[in-house]
Amino acid sequence: MALLFVIFAAPIVTAWGMITWSVGIPQDHTAHGKVISNVPLLDDWPLTASVVDAEQWTLVLDCGTRCEQQQDELWRLHRALGREAARLQRLRIGGSNAALPGETVVAWQHQPAWSHDHTVWLFDPMGRPALAFSPNVSTSDILDDIRHLFKVNPI
Predict the structure, then answer these.
(1) Measured in Å, how far apart are the chain's first and last C-alpha atoms?
(2) 155 and 84 in contact (C-beta within 8 Å)?
(3) Which CATH number among 3.10.560.10, 3.40.830.10, 3.90.280.10, 3.40.30.10 corresponds to the domain 29-152?
(4) Is 0.85 topped by the overall pTM?
(5) Longest C-alpha distance within the chain, in Å?
């Protein structure tokens, strides 16, 4: 009878010990981008064209003056999504070079105070901001976050 009690009590005692002494609990986070709340809906951005598609997530690059490398990396990220690529649209704000396949190019009517050059934003299909990625976040980390969001949001 004591053995049966030990078998059923051991997981509870182990979990209590892990929580009490913070042993074996992962401390890192999964999102590489920052959750943003001070950015308006994508429909409310002062852009030259409306771009929200209720079926797709939107990856937005504020290009600034020179962004050829970042533009190419995001195009490769889009291709790396494979069959999930249809769930994402890319939007580039500014820049002087031609649009890459699957990319929509618009411009600011006036640049808002919260926008920063070379920032990448990810918006859900309703146009709500989900994550913001600073220029020093690698493209593979952005891809990881997008794949995770697609996995937890299957529709």
Answers:
(1) 50
(2) no
(3) 3.40.30.10
(4) no
(5) 77
Q: How far apart are CA 76 and CA 44, in angstroms?
A: 28
Give tens-digit pLDDT for 41-59: 988 888 888 777 778 999 9
- Scan for tokens 């009517």, then name that residue: 109
How far, CA to CA in Å, does 122 sit from each of 7, 15, 48, 118? Answer: 47, 36, 19, 13
pLDDT digits (tens, 9 = 90+) for 76-100: 999 999 999 999 999 999 888 888 8
Q: Are 92 and 65 in contact (CB under 8 A)?
A: no
Tell me the domain boundaries of the chain: 29-152
75, 100 contact by CB (below 8 A): yes
